[in-house]
Amino acid sequence: GAVVSQHPSWVICKSGTSVKIECRSLDFQATTMFWYRQFPKQSLMLMATSNEGSKATYEQGVEKDKFLINHASLTLSTLTVTSAHPEDSSFYICSARDVKRLGTGELFFGEGSRLTVL
Amino acid sequence: RKEVEQDPGPFNVPEGATVAFNCTYSNSASQSFFWYRQDCRKEPKLLMSVYSSGNEDGRFTAQLNRASQYISLLIRDSKLSDSATYLCVVTLGDYKLSFGAGTTVTVRA
Q1: Do A97 and B34 touch (CB under 8 A)?
Q2: Which residue spans within B1-109 are E strands per DSSP?
């Protein structure tokens, strides 16, 4: 099956620093990837839709200047949490859809990145 | 109104029991429907697609009711390993997806 790799799995950083999370589709191409955030015992919240070759589309309430998204190629999207603060500590997950299988609607998820900001 | 709504539960059931829950969606033009399973601190994984005629996969049965705009998931002969959060996903077009908040199922020995 299709594989999405997310890196790093865990990251601990100091308040005020920036953290970059990578999401790679390993065996398929994805013109669109999705970034989610999940706080403990809460549901997945879509943050933004990452579009290859164009600007990301952010959900209401998500600061685009704080959460920088770059979809550099058909297999890589990155999320950078800038000037991270403790309230940004969360589980960040990406997902992607295979451009050749859009009709199935299936999403492939990365393993998630757990960010802890001290 | 949220695009996709689920009963958050939790549904606490004994092993061997049957548990069922629904997910309602607001957009009648929604095209594809899925159930994903998410274990604690893990990423969601596809459990099954939901087809118009309904479909089974082992102990899991999914149904779609377009007239009433809901999908359902039924788990028969529950196992301890079925304890998880079940997410309903609805698609509209190629890139518009909506998630439910998830239904938590806890199967006890």
Answers
A1: no
A2: 4-6, 11-14, 19-25, 32-38, 45-50, 55-57, 60-65, 70-75, 84-92, 96-99, 103-108
Tokens of A96: 């992607």
Q: What is the least distance, in Å, from the CA of A100 to any CA of chain B?
A: 11
Give one word for B44, left, alpha or beta, with left for phi > 0 and alpha for psi -120 to 50: beta
CB contact under 8 A, A91 and B91: no
Rounded to an integer, what distance in angstroms lies between the CA atom of residue B36 and that of residue B104? Answer: 12
Chain A contact set for B91 (CB, 8 A)? 105
- The CA distance from A11 to A31, in Å, is 27
Q: Count CB atoms within 10 A of the CB of residue A104.
A: 14
Q: End-to-end CA distance of chain A, in Å?
A: 37
Cβ A83 vs Cβ A19: under 8 Å: no
| pLDDT tens digit sequence for A68-81 | 999 989 999 999 99
**Nearest residue on chain B to A38, alpha-carbon basis:** B41
Pairwise CA distance, residues A28 & B76, whole Å: 35
pLDDT in tens, B23-32: 999 999 888 8
